[in-house]
Amino acid sequence: MKFKLGLVQMKMNSSKQENIDNAIRMIAEAAKKGASIVCLPELFNSPYFPQDEKANINDIVETIPGPTTTVLSKAAKDNKVVLVGGSIYEKDEKSGKFYNTTPVFDETGKLLGKYRKVHIPHDPNFYEQNYFEPGDLGFQVFKTRNGKLGTLICYDQWFPEAARINALMGADILFYPTAIGTVKDVEQSEGNWQEAWENVQRGHAIANATVVCTVNRVGTEEKMNFWGGSFVIDQFGKTIVRGSNKEEVLVTEIDLDLGKQIKEGWRFFYNRRPDQYKEITRK
After folding, report:
1. Does the domain made of 2-281 have the CATH classification 3.60.110.10?
2. What is the pLDDT, as a whole number, of residue 157?
């Protein structure tokens, strides 16, 4: 099965409404270019506020369903696309807890469900544990007209367990809405961060015979310089599209049948040894 993915690589500012309007415009652009599935970046309707330890986020937080998901639902329906809605700063109405949450819509605008970010970073300029609880819904895979979609968020990228579980749940494509870049006055002493970021996800694609689609933001926000570089990697690790460091809509074709071919040929899933993996869940 061949179809096109649309990656909305955005620059955000302090106006929530302007960010949402820009996202809607770029979703429509992706659809006009033939995209069947479109993905937005992490926290697309606001600046990346977790770089501050105590940011004023009263006008950003929402429930799901809520104002932003209502607009995204309409965009999915109007453009007849499956929409991975980046992520939203969500307040759970029952518990009052806060999450970093990806909503997913089908081409009719129906909310298929949501994924709450499981792995929450906490480093200088990435103070996410000040804002988000670890996701409590488990991993989520959504059945669509274009196959099964696994949705993870940014820091989840560094954990092979998350990708593997999504693949075991049947995901044909892994989507990673993302907000990552370099930090002013912080040296990349370990090596090139962007290369490591892409390479670790290349491993997820190959090991799981899944397409990996990662959508980053761009632009400078306070101390953060978001490098963009959104990409799609096929099921054997080939980067088939990579974005610049500018705002843009990327559209590229993928072939889900390649994943089936690799699973049968390399038999990574058939030859797994779950009985030997107990150590991975020990603290």
Report:
1. yes
2. 98
- What pLDDT score was predicted for residue 186? 87
Report the alpha-carbon distance of residue 170 to residue 59 in Å, rounded.
37
Q: 60: burial class by Cβ within 10 Å (0-12, 13-18, 19+)?
A: middle
- pTM, full prediction: 0.97
List of residues 6+ apart from 277 with CB closer than 8 A: none
Residue ranges of domains in the chain = 2-281
Could you tell me which residues come within 8 angstroms of residue 115 by beta carbon, excluding any fewer than 6 positions away? 101, 102, 104, 135, 137, 139, 140, 151, 152, 153
Side chain identity at 119, as an amino acid letter? H
Contact 215, 255 (CB under 8 A): no
CA distances to 55, 94, 276 from 131, in Å? 9, 17, 37
Query: Mean pLDDT across the stretch 256-272?
Result: 96
CB 43 within 8 A of CB 89: yes
Q: List residues with catalytic annotation.
A: 42, 117, 154
Longest dimension (CA), the chain: 52
E-strand ranges in 52-209 read: 82-84, 88-91, 98-105, 111-116, 141-144, 147-151, 173-177, 181-183
In terms of residues, how long is the chain?
A: 283
Kindly state the tokens that stand for 125: 């300029």
Answer yes or no: are the C-beta atoms of 47 and 29 closer than 8 Å. Answer: no
pLDDT at 283: 73
For residue 199, the model assigns a pLDDT of: 97
